[in-house]
Design brief:
9 helices; alpha/beta; Rossmann fold; 7-stranded mixed β-sheet
């Protein structure tokens, strides 16, 4: 497994467009962690399942370079040791149709379920799509700070499920503190399923020389909410910073698990996701 497995080719179908060059760094981290996950857990559970809440079209075009990256569904399907079952959720019907065609063409013998709809809609549900008794890895990768805690809480009920979440800490939250802290804004309320976080944000600014980074504050708050579901604490330094080509942090990729083994896998993946390091 090397960096080349992250790249695809033009096939005439719809793609995820307007993608930044940093996306390869995010996908590399996913690839390495998912490999650790299946390699370490295969045979130790009834089955392994992979869920992608914002699956997209399966291929992504990098705007600056025109390179084509495999999307998270195809990365997960391309692992040396595969999951036993895959569930791909996407609300854009055109993207979902393109993903279905790509999967059928290259992975027709794999157990895959495609679900059309918005995972954050209160009326949406997976039903029996996730096999009972499966150890599940769920990738949560919205374009902006659009994760809703209620969605993850609902998914976690009566399941053994780890969440790998992309938090738009600096790209979205860090750039819009004045907008998101306004009472009429509900984005952070939905992210945290809380309306009292503004008080803690104001308290965090008391007695400090400079205002704390709002994106870092949101990462901390979200991690503490995940702890209320029984997940292990995840500190900011344990999250994988995703950077621009210029080295500016724009996202944090965070693993939430109830297992110390998963935390060890995550640390290994974070170490070897650097371009100059090789795990295999």
């Amino acid at each position: 497994m090397d960096n080349q497995t992250l790249y695809g080719t033009e096939d005439g179908l719809s793609m995820n467009e307007d993608v930044g060059s940093w996306t390869a760094e995010k996908y590399r981290q996913l690839q390495l962690y998912a490999h650790q996950f299946t390699m370490g857990m295969k045979g130790k559970w009834k089955s392994l399942a992979y869920v992608d809440l914002y699956a997209g079209a399966g291929l992504s075009r990098v705007t600056a370079t025109n390179e084509i990256l495999l999307g998270s569904p195809l990365i997960a399907l391309s692992l040396d040791i595969k999951f036993d079952h895959y569930v791909f959720c996407e609300r854009d019907s055109t993207k979902l149709a393109a993903l279905e065609q790509r999967v059928e063409r290259s992975f027709s013998n794999v157990s895959v379920e495609f679900i059309s709809g918005d995972c954050d809609d209160p009326t949406f549900h997976f039903g029996s799509a996730i096999p009972q008794g499966a150890l599940t890895l769920c990738f949560v990768d919205p374009y902006k700070l659009d994760i809703r805690f209620k969605t993850l809480r609902s998914l976690s009920q009566n399941r053994s499920i780890d969440f790998l979440c992309l938090l738009a800490s600096r790209m979205d939250a860090g750039r819009n503190p004045h907008n998101y802290t306004r009472e009429e804004s509900t984005k952070i309320d939905e992210l945290l399923d809380s309306n009292d976080w503004r008080e803690r944000w104001e308290e965090s600014k008391i007695g400090v020389a400079r205002v704390p980074n709002f994106g870092d504050f949101i990462c901390k708050e979200f991690s503490e909410k995940m702890e209320t579901l029984g997940y292990l604490p995840t500190e900011l330094h344990e999250m994988r910073p995703i950077k621009t080509d210029g080295g500016v942090v724009i996202y944090h990729l965070a693993l939430f698990s109830k297992s110390k083994i998963a935390k060890r896998f995550w640390q290994q993946a974070s170490t070897y996701s650097q371009p100059q390091r090789k795990l295999f």
